[in-house]
Amino acid sequence: MKLDFKKQTIADGERLWKILNNNSYRGCEFSVANLILWSGFYHTEYAVTGDVLVTKQTSEDGAVRLSFPIGAGDDKEELQIFECELEYFRTIGQAPRFGMIDHVMMEKIERWYPDRFQWDTERNWADYVYSREQLASLAGKKLHGKRNHIKRFIDRHPEWKYETITEDNVEECICMAKEWCRQHCVQEDDEKEEEAHLVNRALRSFRTLHMKGGLLRIKEGVIAFTLGCPITKDTFDVNFEKAFGDIQGAYPMINQQFVLHELQDYTYINREEDLGIEGLRKAKLSYAPVFLLEKGIVFEKN
Fold it and tell me: Less CB within 10 Å around the terminal CB: N or C of the chain?
């Protein structure tokens, strides 16, 4: 059994979907959209063995991190592939180093190799995971402010409409995203610029990437949209959410309407990490996540 890595492209969407459709790990990195869209920015590749996927991330200095085996494999198959990953590190002459490892993965690694590996988590990488029911209803005192923002939005824009993103309206979202970027993107912010580029790619390839999307329209046109992709059978990942911030209530409105109309079949909504950005952390916490999915780096103990 050998790991042969290749660069993922939009054309790999269907192949990756067939594997990840049986994934049971909830980390946002394992949606088809994130695996493909961010591969260039994070220098990632993938290898497939049977029904299991492994990703490789290579830093500028050549250091490699591999993922945990992802897909439909059972415990025995995951262990076999994990051993292949250890052999891969020996082949390239690097100490084993695994990224995007959550607590479930770490429990398996510890069971397979007791007291051999260390797990260092990073708060900035933790995914915010919410109850679909809670985001749909916005019930309770903690979300009272969100309900008020939505009420003001409806009062000021009684003609508002929600629409599922389709081939018929996707170009309007692309135009809105360009205007949003013109207002918000600044030079020398590589990640923000890359995200703007990837939003465009995602909208143009949303079917191939197995993404769902929704938009919010008022009489002036499209003022918000959301786009995301399943991670597991019960967890959906929100990849992109854009709204014009000067329209009060646009963000909570598109958030709620998207969940209500598109995500009836899911229990959990993953809204990804905050990357240590203070304003983003405050916004994500304000929606009262049911849990934070901790992730970290795993390496051999000295």
Answer: C
